[in-house]
Amino acid sequence: QVQLVESGGGLVRAGGSLRLSCTASGRTHNSIIMGWFRQAPGKEREFVGAISWGGGATHYPDAMKGRFTISRENAKNTVYLVMSSLKPEDTAVYYCAAGEPLRLFPAGLSEQSAYDYWGQGTQVAVSS
Length: 128
Known about the structure:
This protein is mainly β. The protein is 5% helix and 49% strand. It is built from one helix and eleven strands; from the N terminus they run E-E-E-E-E-E-E-E-E-H-E-E. A hairpin with a 5-residue loop joins strand 5 and strand 6 (58-59). The radius of gyration is 14 Å and the shape is globular.
């Protein structure tokens, strides 16, 4: 079992930046993949990006490239999502998730059902 706890959400003005954290505990290992997703009100949950816990390789969908950066700090078992130039449409609940490469690589890193563990989410609100 892996437990994930997100933090760092809040209210920010458009154009501002925010850093979200996701701290993992339990049976983590270097091969695990950590993903970030978000769900805006009335919309489906969408993929923000992912990072390999061991090597640190990252992947972002085209829509998220440029303003979102994922990194990890292994010593703290924490993955970060830094969001910059925030827009009101970035308002959402942000979730982190963890999954195994053997499931995720065939399914695709954006495939939510391929992630085994999810955090409770952290709310981000961007005011105009």
